[in-house]
Amino acid sequence: MAMTVGFVVNNVMVVRIWSDKVGPAVLLLAAFGSLGNIFGPLLAVPFVSHEDSTDSFSHLVFWPFVILAILFIANAINLSLQHVVGPRGHLCYVSASTITVDMEEDFKESKRASQLLWLVVPGMGLVDFFVRASDSIPAYLLPSIGIESRLNMVASQSNLVLALYDVSRTISKLLASLLLKRVSVLICVPMCLVMTSIWALFLYLWGLTSVPAYFMIVIIMGMFTGPTATLLVVWCNEYITVDGYAMSVWQVAENVGILSSVLVGGIVFDVYGSLLVLLVNFIAGLIGCIAFLILQFAISTNCRSARHRHQILE
Questions:
Q1: 2-313 CATH, one of 1.20.1250.20, 3.40.50.2300, 3.40.50.150, 1.10.10.10
Q2: Alpha helix stretches (DSSP H) within the chain
Q3: PANTHER family annotated for this entry (predicted)?
C-alpha cells in the first residue's frame, strides 16, 4: 500500500510541477522506477547468499529489509517536503499572476476538454489493463519459456533474457522522454501499441525457433512495451488534467493487469505449454491496440462535435 500511494503521489506531483513538460517528466520518473526494479534485487544478493556457509539461513537477511525501510523513510520525507513547499515553490510552476491571455484561452479549452473525463479515464484504464497484461506475461514467464520450450535454455541464459528485457524497457522510457520533445504523444502511443502487437506475433511465430531469435525479438519487443503504459498517462493529459483520480485508475489497471496476466499466463503455460502462452500474449496486445484505436476515434468524434456546438453558440 505504501509503494502504491507513494507512486501515485509522486506522479501527481510531477504532473503539477512540470505541467508544460508532462511527457518527458513522467517517463523519466518511470525510467528511474525501472532502474530501481533492476538494481533493487541486486542489493539483497550479498546479504542472502550463503554459499560459503554450512548454515542454510543467512543471519544477514534482515539487512535488505533495513535498507527498504530507510528508502521508505527517505521517500516519506521527500513527499512531506514537497507538500510543505507546494507546487508554487518550484521555479517551473506557472502561477496565476503570470497567466497570459493565450494561456487563459488554453485553460478554457482544457476546461471544455475536462468534460471528456467520463470517457478518457475509464478508457485509459481499460487499454492499460491489456497493455500491462501483454507486458507482464513476458516479464514473468520469459525464463520459464526459455527453459521448458524446445529451446532448452540453461538457467543462466533464461535469466539473461529477462535482464535484457528489463534493460530494454528502461532504455525505451529514457528514449521516449527525449522523443516526446519532437513527436506528439498521439503518434507515440499507437505506434508503440501496434509495434508491441507485431513483435508479440513474431515472438509467437519465430521466437522459439532458435536462441538468438528469442533474444533478439524479446529485446526489440521491450523497446515498445516499456514506455507504453506511461505514455497512456501522457496521452490522457492531452484531454484532461491528470489528478489523483486518473492516477489511481491507472494504478488499479496496472495492478489488475499484472495479477490477471500472471494468473492466466501461468495457468496456460502449465496446461498447454510455451507456444500457447505466447499466443495469449499476442492476443492481449492486439486487444489493447484495437481498444485504444476505438477510444481515440470516440474521443476525436466527441471533440469535433463539441467544437461544432461551440461555433454554433458563438
A1: 1.20.1250.20
A2: 2-17, 22-48, 62-85, 101-113, 117-148, 155-179, 185-206, 211-237, 244-272, 274-313
A3: SODIUM-DEPENDENT GLUCOSE TRANSPORTER 1
Q: How many residues does the chain have?
A: 314
Whether the CB-CB separation of 36 and 189 falls below 8 Å is answered with no
- At 311, the pLDDT band (50, 70, 90 cuts) reads confident
Q: Residues 140, 262: contact at Cβ < 8 Å?
A: yes
What is the pTM assigned to this prediction? 0.81
Q: Which residues of 112-132 are buried (b: 16+ CB within 10 A; e: fewer)?
A: ebeebbeebbebbbbbbbbbb
| Start-to-end CA span in the chain (Å) | 49
Residue 1's pLDDT band (cuts 50, 70, 90)? low
